[in-house]
Specification:
The protein has helices at 51-54, 61-69; strands spanning 3-6, 16-18, 24-32, 37-42, 45-50, 56-60. It is an alpha+beta fold. The chain has a single domain (3-69), classed as SH3 type barrels (Roll), CATH 2.30.30. A 6-stranded antiparallel sheet has the order 1-6-2-3-4-5. A hairpin with a 5-residue loop joins strand 2 (16-18) and strand 3. The termini are far apart.
């Protein structure tokens, strides 16, 4: 996988979060952009997590290129 790590950015649906132990979660829906709360798929279960406090957001390089163009 070719991903770039980002710290302290707001997640978007489809982003991959890494917790402190290195386990990956996929963001399904952002609940509150100010606090960073979002629903994420984790080990086959949907959980409410805070992306800003304990995670790093990874985005595919294709999305990064699209963000720079816009």
């Amino acid at each position: 996988m070719n991903h770039k790590l980002h710290n302290a950015i707001l997640p978007q649906p489809g982003d991959v979060l890494l917790d402190r132990s290195g386990k990956e979660m996929i963001v399904l829906e952002v609940v509150d952009r100010l606090s960073g709360d979002c629903y994420a798929l984790y080990n086959g279960e949907v959980k409410l997590v805070n992306a800003l406090k304990s995670s790093v957001v990874k985005r595919p390089k294709e999305e990064q290129k699209n963000e720079k163009k816009n």
